[in-house]
Amino acid sequence: MSAHPDETLELDDIQRGVLSPRPTPYAATYLAFRIDDPEHGRELMRRASEAVSSAADAAGPLGDTWVSVALTCRGLAALGVPRAALATFSWEFRQGMAARARTLGDVGDSGPEHWERPLGGPDVHVVLTAVAPGPELLEAAVDRARPAYDRLTGVTATWRQDCYALPTGTEHFGYLDGVSHPAVEGSGIPGSNRLEAPLKAGEFVLGHRDELGGIQRPQPDVLGRNGSYAVFRKLHQDVAAFRRYLKENSTGPGDEELIAAKIMGRWRSGAPLALAPQTDDPDLGADPERRNTFLYRNDDPAGFTTPGGSHIRRANPRDAAVAGEVRLHRMIRRGAVYGPPLPEGLLADDGADRGLMFAFVGSHLGRQFEFVQTQWLNDGVFFGADDAKDPVTGAHDGSAGFTVPRRPLRRRLAPLPRFVVTRGGEYCFLPSLTALRWLGDPHD
């Protein structure tokens, strides 16, 4: 789309958490802080600039372990960033996720009035994330980051969420997670779909040209350049309800797994229906070189193999004929499991809190995250399905079911309950390392 030549990314200035896929296996911790004293907040930024890993560290001694730091709009204001500078940031970011809840489908049990405190409220200014290939390395990463916030009396820890990979390597509904990751020009990180051309760096890194040739530039340039936006969402999964739905709508175990695959677009092993349409292929699901390399337009335009309403085809329609240009809505997405697994075979909820910490990274909160959430996941007009919602994550009210395209007659499943409930979230800004140091100084 853009005729501009590829741009060189300053990887040593971009936080590692912007571009890198999550390690597998993994452990992660999310820590939230409130800034009560601006000077202590600026000291936190100065220290954080020394603790945060850059995208150039991917081949360094820390390997797949990194720490990243993000700030809400309230956090930038608490540091003393001038109003004129704040006004140059995305208006969705300035509003915050709680104010965008109705648009996002966060209503009813998912409404901000039910969110886990302090998420969505005035007490989240900074979100520190540590990611590692396992618990021991994670604790070491947190220990390295602790000096950044330790003994700063004007900075208060307000929330923590620990996440660990399940022994199965799946998320709580039983599907292999962390399968898809786009290629970004200049990052040196290959995408998971070899048939997808790399996306312009400006889709994910501020201050660089995007797919339309434009440049998002929060000001001053020292603050905005090489940063990105991040969306954090805590999503509770009703695993018992999901299992009951599959069982009640199937004719037996084999049919139950087929329905699970049609709903997701993949078998639970990670093998896509596009490449394994009749039966599961665990070897394919375990192969990162093959399991995500497919398209839809020529092989499955009508969705008889991978339904147009399935989760993965909604979240990323690839080359399918849909309303809009798919490349303008691509996202870097990561999920991290929290809470204990529901024991195998149990169909009644045990009361434990379990789910997924969802993270999005990109330069366009509006046309990336919010567009996908509102137009592709919580609506179906883009592929001709009226107001049908995503069967897994959609904001269902029990009034509409799921349709499996099939010859000669399509298969209609029972009305869908809401399987995923939002427990809270934040819109954040991931500054560059240069910007973290700039935020450590007072500004008029």
UniProtKB/TrEMBL annotation:
Amino acid composition bias (Basic and acidic residues), ranges on this chain: 287-300
SUPFAM superfamilies noted in UniProt: Dimeric alpha+beta barrel
PROSITE patterns membership: DYP_PEROXIDASE
InterPro entries: Dimeric_a/b-barrel (IPR011008), Dyp_peroxidase (IPR006314)
Cofactor(s) essential for the protein: heme b
Keywords: Iron, Metal-binding, Oxidoreductase, Peroxidase
One Gene Ontology molecular-function label: peroxidase activity
UniProt region (Disordered), positions on chain: 274-315
Family as reported in the entry's similarity comment: Belongs to the DyP-type peroxidase family.
Name of this protein: Dyp-type peroxidase
The organism of origin for this protein: Streptomyces ramulosus
